[in-house]
Specification:
The complex is a heterodimer.
Chain A lengths: L6 H30 L6 H13 L8 H24 L7 H23 L15 E3 L2 E3 L3 H23 L1 H11 L1 H6 L4 H24 L11 H15 L4 H21 L2 H5 L1 H12 L14
Chain B lengths: L13 H21 L2 H26 L7 H18 L5 H23 L4 H21 L1 H4 L5 E2 L7 H6 L6 H29 L1 H11 L1 H6 L4 H27 L1 E2 L6 H14 L4 H25 L6 H21 L3 H20 L1
Antiparallel strand pairs in B: 1-2
The chains are: A mainly alpha, B mainly alpha.
């Protein structure tokens, strides 16, 4: 029995393994929120749909990585299409319209996926082993797949961060989000960048969806992302919806809190954990833990 | 949604209430004689769903707070009724319904209090989280709620005077279905009357002012937090009542019924009928009850196998498409569409004169 296999560390490992996914989904929400002020309630469903498009290619003899690449490409396409067709008419409308439309899109995508691929969960081949590492005869609750999950999420987060921070494209994206009119005057093609933001967000979500559904235990199903989206949204809200770093950190925190509650709290409370975490966090800091804008009310 | 709303001060008076009640009873009784038991079930469902949609309408239509978790309040109502019915078989049904509403309202206040500090998408996300956790929460209280299998309870006892009144003493199932239909319509009538009253009351006007401009509302002395929590409580109470009526029809409360899908369906129905309107809620309720029949019709017309994946999910697809197109093209719903068309027709006619 090493300290790595203690109950505490087991919870930490499981919490981080889930938490990176919440962070990734939250990041995906934040990208879209910052540029278009729309909370994409269909984010999880879009990721699920693109994951289906890619991962069902395995029946054509493609291997996991090729399917993964197709899924991400489908995510880009779906994100762009959604922005052009559904979201663009919503920019000047009241908030309530965008909420309702995105919720409608969520329902539409889940039903369409069920109609095309059925509601029965589809197990995907897992690229890495699910068997937990052993250390001096005791089990550490980390598997090669969990490591892949954590690394994949961190790579995408870093990549998104790098795009925003260090590339010219990222600079334009930030400009378009911060001051669309000024950016437009300076020659930034704002509309095109808004579309690109949605594409990027959608593709990041697809990575989460593919990782979740290939983890072996659950498989891919039309409603697979519902629970993860709820936690991802909570992470984004707790992080302040504006802050990419906040989203990632909050995602990790929520993964850990959820894991510890599951272990130490009665089941009634732990199943209610999402609402409790959200309420408590927003009571303490209604503007989000990492938000820098002070005048904004939520 | 148009920002300029004209407010009428006219409140439904007690005389109107009595008239409405008498009319509802008459309609229910006459309908009861004409209809067969299977139609009774549709009527009971329509009434229950109309109440549920009205609940969402108060929250979203009146006070502008979008909820994607109202099915959670319906679950509260359904389970309160079911648990109560399992413990007290011979208890006045009215008390059971009122009890469900009270528990629902408490739930609404509990969720509404933190919600006063949130708005827009944050609030919608919180209600989504609430709606999402209700199913596992209920299932985790297995000793109370029967876990994931649902909680069945004895059929609502039809009073003997009713059985003899509808003259179906030999057909108990039919009499029972009729009793449920009449009861549901009556309860829905009373609930919608109170909703109409609320809409035109001081509180209702405050809600709409908060929806349209919360700063202006605060300036004229409206207590924002109180108004928002009131909307939550009223909405949850009606949703619980609807859920309770629905559970009575089914004879059971099943937690999986009241998932996020039902919340989305409620929102679709609300948008389709028309936000903040009584007749919109009634239209929505009737549509909800007959959705499955309409779907069977659509499937048979288009030749889609109802047991295929497409046939089974047609409802969700159509609801999604309707929700999106209505919100983009006619955000005020069927009622709004009808009003606009009527106004256009009037203008055309007066133009011709």
């Amino acid at each position: 029995m090493t300290w790595l296999s203690s109950g505490f560390m087991s919870d930490v490992f499981l919490g981080i393994t889930n938490g990176v996914l919440y962070g990734l989904i939250a990041l995906s929400l934040v990208i879209v929120w910052r540029s278009t002020s729309i909370l994409n309630f269909a984010q999880g469903a879009m990721a699920m749909f693109a994951a289906y498009v890619g991962m069902t290619m395995s029946s054509h003899g493609l291997n996991f990585w090729a399917c993964f690449a197709i899924a991400i490409a489908a995510g880009f396409a779906l994100g762009g299409l959604t922005e052009r067709v559904l979201v663009r008419p919503l920019y000047k409308r009241p908030e309530i319209n965008s909420i309702v439309v995105m919720v409608g899109f969520l329902g539409l995508l889940e039903s369409a996926a069920a109609a095309i691929w059925s509601t029965a969960p589809r197990t995907l081949e897992s690229p890495f082993s699910q068997i937990y590492f052993q250390h001096h005869g005791s089990t550490i609750l980390l598997s090669p797949f969990a490591l892949f999950q954590i690394i994949a999420a961190l790579v995408i987060m870093t990549a998104v961060g790098a795009i925003f921070r260090y590339t010219n494209l990222g600079l334009q994206l930030r400009a378009a989000a911060l001051a669309p009119e000024v950016a437009r005057l300076l020659g930034v093609r704002v509309n095109r960048l808004l579309t690109f933001g949605w594409m990027l967000s959608s593709a990041a979500g697809v990575v989460a969806a593919v990782v979740i559904s290939s983890s072996g235990s659950i498989g891919l199903s039309p409603t697979i992302m519902d629970g993860f989206f709820v936690f991802g949204f909570i992470a984004a809200a707790v992080g302040g919806l504006e802050s990419p770093l906040g989203a990632v950190v909050a995602g990790l925190m929520i993964g850990l809190v959820q894991q510890f509650l599951q272990d130490y709290a009665p089941s009634g409370i732990s199943s209610f954990a999402p609402v409790i975490i959200l309420v408590v966090a927003l009571m303490i800091r209604p503007q989000g833990l990492f938000s820098t804008t002070k005048a904004r009310r939520v | 949604m148009s920002k300029l709303t004209t407010f009428s001060d006219a409140r439904p008076t007690t005389t109107r209430f009595i008239k409405a009640t008498v009319a509802t009873i008459l309609v229910a009784l006459i309908a009861g004689y004409v209809l067969t038991p299977s139609t009774d079930i549709y009527i009971a469902t329509a009434a229950a769903m109309a109440v549920s949609v009205m609940g969402l309408s108060i929250l979203t239509g009146f006070s502008g707070q979008v909820s994607i978790g109202n099915a959670g309040f319906m679950a509260i109502g359904a389970y309160t009724t079911a648990i109560w019915a399992n413990h007290h078989e011979h208890f006045p049904i009215v008390l059971s319904l009122v009890g469900s509403m009270a528990v629902g309202a408490l739930g609404g206040i509990a969720l509404g209090l933190p919600a006063t500090r949130l708005r827009g998408p944050y609030l919608a996300g919180m209600t989504l989280a609430f709606g999402y956790v209700m199913t596992p929460f209920i299932q985790s209280l297995g000793s109370w709620t029967g876990g994931s299998g649902g909680l069945y309870f004895p059929v609502l006892v039809t009073p003997t005077w009713f059985t003899s009144l509808v003259g179906e003493s030999e057909n108990l199932i039919g009499a029972n279905a009729r009793y449920q239909a009449v009861l549901s319509v009556l309860v829905a009538g009373i609930a919608l009357f109170f909703a109409a009253n609320l809409s035109n009351s001081r509180v209702g006007r405050a809600m709409r002012l908060v929806r349209d401009d919360d700063v202006a509302a605060e300036l004229v002395g409206v207590n924002l937090a109180q108004t928002r929590v009131t909307a939550f409580a009223a909405s949850a109470a009606l949703a619980a009542l609807g859920g309770s009526l629905l559970a009575l029809v089914a004879g059971a409360a099943t937690s999986s019924t009241y998932g996020v899908a039902l919340s989305i369906e409620l929102l679709s129905l609300l948008v389709l009928g028309g936000m903040g309107s009584i007749s919109g809620a009634i239209i929505a309720g009737i549509l909800a009850a007959y959705t499955d029949l309409i779907m069977t019709k659509i499937n048979s017309l288009t030749g889609i196998d109802p047991f295929s994946n497409l046939g089974a999910n047609m409802k969700g697809i159509i609801f999604g498409v309707v929700l999106i197109t209505m919100m983009l093209a006619a955000p005020r719903g069927l009622v709004g569409l009808a009003t606009t068309l009527a106004a256009k027709a009037r203008r055309l006619r007066s133009g011709a004169n």
